[in-house]
Design a protein that fits this description.
Layout: E1 11-22, E2 25-37, E3 43-44, H1 47-62, E4 67-71, H2 88-91
Parallel strand pairs: 2-4
Antiparallel strand pairs: 1-2, 2-3
The structure holds zinc ion (ZN).
């Protein structure tokens, strides 16, 4: 697909480090599978991946921690279903 941000480059499969920030809360997730733009570096995370990331962030928040560093490959996956995200605003970090 073409990048929705710069509209000038193709995106390719890659791994992306995703940063969450919410008030004082900081979470870094390494090795998140994403489509990465060759032009501007924008990353598009698929919907099921985004849902998983948010769930992990909530768990860490609920545990009372204010920061964390995760590797996406170590997060248990509920299933291997791949869905395509059509909403850039909802799925782009
Ligand atoms: Zn781009």
């Amino acid at each position: 697909m073409n990048c929705l941000i710069c509209r000038q480059a193709e995106t390719v499969d890659g791994l992306k480090t995703v940063h969450f920030e919410r008030d004082e809360f900081r979470l870094v997730v390494n090795n998140v599978p994403a489509r990465v733009c060759l032009g501007c570096g924008e990353a598009y995370v698929e919907e099921n991946v985004a849902v998983e990331l948010l769930r992990e962030a909530e768990e860490i928040l609920d545990a009372g921690r204010m920061d964390g560093v995760l590797d996406f490959r170590t997060i248990p996956q509920p299933n291997d279903t791949i869905t395509t995200c059509n909403s850039a605003s909802a799925c782009s970090f």
